Amino acid sequence: MVAAALAAGIALTACSGSSPEPGPTPSASAVGGMATCDQATVSAAVESDVNATYPGATFVSLDDFTCVEGWASATAQVDTSGTTVPTEFFLRAEGQFWIPTSIEDICSTPLAESDAPEEIYVAACGVQQ
Fold first, then answer.
1. 17: which residues sit within 8 A by CB, 6+ positions away?
2. How many domains does the chain have?
3. pTM for the complete prediction?
4. 6 within some domain
5. How far apart are alpha carbons 122 and 97 in whole angstroms?
């Protein structure tokens, strides 16, 4: 069984301080960045998606993940009603955050027109088109 991660909102926060003296305006890079592709970050994104998308399900562990050109595919163990099943998740980087993306979103366009890299597309859709 392959379950797709559904798009979930992730709140972006930025700090701003007040100063009596005017100063330079910080650039977007001061609060932006690139999504980190490591076990802790991908695991946290998948766990957040499980919590937001699958009521009653519990994230157990991240088994494996691959990052390619701002996209990630991950296999995680998810407990649903006492049964733990491997579940596939797909994420795309937006700035410093991983955003869940459904298989339907990835596979709704042919590979040649898709934003997803070929490796992610084939993992989600099963075939090259």
1. none
2. 1
3. 0.73
4. no
5. 23
